[in-house]
Write a structure and sequence with these properties.
Layout lengths: L1 H15 L17 E6 L13 E3 L1 E8 L12 E5 L13 E4 L8 E8 L2 E6 L9 E7 L10 E7 L8 E2 L2 E8 L5 E8 L5 E2 L4 E3 L3 E11 L8 E8 L10 E7 L8 E2 L2 E8 L5 E8 L5 E2 L4 E3 L3 E11 L8 E8 L7 E7 L8 E2 L2 E8 L5 E8 L5 E2 L4 E3 L3 E11 L8 E8 L8 E7 L8 E2 L2 E8 L5 E8 L5 E2 L4 E3 L3 E11 L8 E8 L16 E4 L2 E6 L9 H5 L8 H17 L5 H13 L11 H4 L4
Parallel strand pairs: 1-3, 2-8, 10-16, 18-24, 26-32, 34-40
Antiparallel strand pairs: 3-6, 4-5, 4-7, 7-8, 9-11, 11-14, 12-13, 12-15, 15-16, 17-19, 19-22, 20-21, 20-23, 23-24, 25-27, 27-30, 28-29, 28-31, 31-32, 33-35, 35-38, 36-37, 36-39, 39-40, 41-42
GO molecular function: metal ion binding
Keywords: Copper, Metal-binding, Signal
Protein name: Ig-like domain (Group 3)
Length: about 625
């Protein structure tokens, strides 16, 4: 019964795309179910532990990157199986991202089928390139004396006599039901045997014979196969890509969202060589061959890309469709609150009490959490919050799911009494660096924040640069973004007293003479795209070019979607360089989506458009 249950789970994982079953996969005698465990910690050079060998068959893969395995920094790692490098098995497409603070506390499991041979695994995050290894899988005994089976398929544009016009493509497929395929080889006419890694294109005019064979892991080589065909010259080749369109169907709510599921159907046509393949990509995933309408039932906003390729190799421009799926959820979330802090003998909280609110929803998911203190205004809950005013308090809380269901209100009551320390810390900031004659900092400025508290001691120092978020101050901050900056800073002591917020300003200028890359700048006060005003200040980006200059709305774009992708890319770089905040980038991208630059905007519900960044 256990073996049947895991076989059923494997079928589910195949459906979800967690377990790949290529054409070369084969049924193996079931080995005892095994569990292989990888762990990670604070290191970016190696996994904390990893298996070296395994036996072919159903296998539970466990990847844990948690505090229990030594990750005390909150760093994310992946366990990714290589599906492209020659010499390794490629049937396992597991790609697990684990973080100590994710919903499963960094521990993840998937069930896969391991084949005899060798697998390569690695961490896919930049900077973690040396976190890699190999897993050797044996067949558990029994000799393999049966060679692989290998077939050839020849494709291309034909004339009425069956000859291939201009070129033919040969695709080889090899399978082995025991030890597995080790290599596939081919030779064209009387040429040398060559390792097969991708379809082979033959374009020399005349008759041809492609020979092919395969060898399994046990060393058995298949009989040599042959495919013959003739290449002839013909009319001018097809250079026009196919036309491909998408149609969305499904039940929609008043806001234009799709309820439960949205179905995407693709249609491609090509008047010359004919359509060879149609592909799609969902939410930035892998390109996948389109064979039938695609049903998307995951709640949230989605981006669906698609393209088509004809038999002459011309590929259409990518198309895009945006849509949002919501669940028909009628059950409100469950919400609770907890109060923490230092208590006196009467159970009162000394100095302050910290309130944490948590909500769960098994249907459409939690949309918002709100709270109010002592009958005040409802406030969006983002993180645990302190209540430091002395006296009795009541905190009321509620949650709303993505389907609009609101939970009953909950309450917690408690009393805060004043501690011995009622004096806030003192906090100061200093800016240092090379300055020019105008007191501007050349190239960079270093900001140092200090705090002192003679009572309970300093608990934390925070700073906020320009329009960024409040951030814990760890060490002196080096600011290299050119332009004027505003620094705000504050400190909190261990009794909960918060120093008054202070601020200062400074300016960073470029080293040496500042080049003007855009002498004829667009100097409108705000970033305007087409006739859409983003309300974001059109500032100089540091080299004489304004944000509107960088966006270049009057340049040539293949489509509206191409323009939007350009805006997303350049504004992301401006955020990385400290020129834009994430919120301002979102407003600019939304303006680009709503504009008509490059053509008509893609169909996107109004409720989702503001979320697209």
């Amino acid at each position: 019964m256990v073996r049947k249950a895991f076989a059923a789970l494997g079928a589910v994982l195949i459906t979800l795309g967690l377990l790949a079953t290529p054409a070369s996969a084969r049924l193996l005698p079931l080995a005892p179910l095994q569990t292989l465990t990888w762990t990670a910690n604070n290191s970016v050079t190696a996994y904390a532990s990893a298996p070296a060998t395994a036996v072919a068959g159903e296998t539970t893969i466990v990847f844990e990157n948690s505090e229990a395995t030594g990750n005390t920094s909150g760093m994310s790692h992946t366990l990714t199986f290589d599906t492209t490098t020659d010499g390794y098995n490629h049937n396992v497409t597991t790609n697990i991202v684990a973080n100590p603070f994710d919903p499963t506390n960094g521990r993840h499991e998937v069930t896969v089928t391991l084949l005899p041979g060798k697998y390569r695994y690695f961490c896919a995050f930049p900077g973690h390139e040396t976190m890699t290894g190999e897993l050797i899988v044996t067949d558990g005994g029994g000799g393999d004396t049966t060679p692989p089976t290998v077939t050839a398929a020849v494709t291309g544009q034909k004339d009425p006599q069956g000859n291939y016009i201009k070129s033919a493509s040969v695709t080889l497929t090899a399978t082995d039901t025991q030890s597995g395929v080790a290599k596939t080889e081919y030779k064209v006419d009387s040429g040398a045997w060559t390792a097969y890694t991708a379809p082979v294109t033959v374009s020399t005019l005349g008759a041809h014979m492609v020979h092919y064979r395969a060898t399994d892991v046990a060393g058995n080589t298949s009989p040599e196969g042959m495919a013959s065909f003739t290449i002839v010259d013909g009319p001018a080749q097809d250079t026009t890509p196919p036309t491909v369109t998408a149609a969305l169907t499904g039940q929609r709510d008043p806001q234009g969202n799709y309820v439960e599921v949205a179905t995407v159907s693709l249609t491609a046509t090509d008047a010359e060589s004919g359509v060879d393949k149609v592909e799609y990509q969902l939410d930035g995933g892998a390109w996948t061959a389109y064979t039938a309408a695609v049903a998307v039932n995951t709640a949230g906003m989605h981006m669906f890309h698609y393209r088509a390729t004809d038999k002459a190799g011309n590929t259409s421009p990518e198309g895009m469709s945006h849509f949002t799926v919501v669940k028909s959820d009628t059950t409100a979330p469950t919400v609770s609150a907890a109060v923490d802090g230092t208590k006196d003998g009467d159970g009162n909280y000394v100095g302050k009490a910290t309130v944490t609110v948590a909500a769960t929803d098994a249907g459409s998911g939690v949309g918002t959490i709100e709270y109010k203190v002592d009958g005040g205004a409802w406030t969006a809950y983002a993180a645990p919050f302190p209540v430091s005013t002395a006296g009795a308090h009541t905190v009321t809380f509620r949650a709303t799911d993505k389907a609009g269901n609101v939970s009953p209100e909950g309450t917690v009551t408690f009393t805060v009494v004043a501690g011995d320390d009622t004096t806030a810390p003192t906090v100061a900031a200093a800016v240092t660096g090379d300055q020019d004659a105008n007191w501007s900092y050349v190239g960079k400025a270093t900001v140092t924040v200090t705090a002192a508290d003679s009572g309970s001691g300093v608990a934390s120092i925070e700073y906020k640069l320009d329009s960024g978020l409040w951030t814990v101050y760890p060490a002196p901050i080096v600011v290299t973004a050119l332009g004027s900056h505003v620094l705000k800073y504050r400190a909190t002591d261990k009794a909960g007293n918060v120093a008054a917020e202070q601020s200062g300003s400074f300016k960073v200028v470029q080293i040496g003479p500042r080049p003007d890359a855009c002498p004829d700048s667009d100097v409108r006060e705000t970033v305007v795209i087409g006739d859409i005003d983003s309300q974001v200040e059109n500032i100089d980006t540091g080299n004489g070019c304004t944000i509107n200059d960088i966006i270049a709305e009057n340049a040539e774009y293949a489509s509206h979607d191409s323009f939007v992708r350009h805006v997303k890319a350049v504004t992301a770089e401006l955020v990385d360089n400290g020129v834009l905040s994430s919120d301002d980038r979102g407003r600019i991208v939304t303006a680009a989506l709503e504009s008509s630059v490059g053509g008509s905007p893609s169909s996107l519900p109004d409720s989702a458009r503001s979320n697209v960044v």
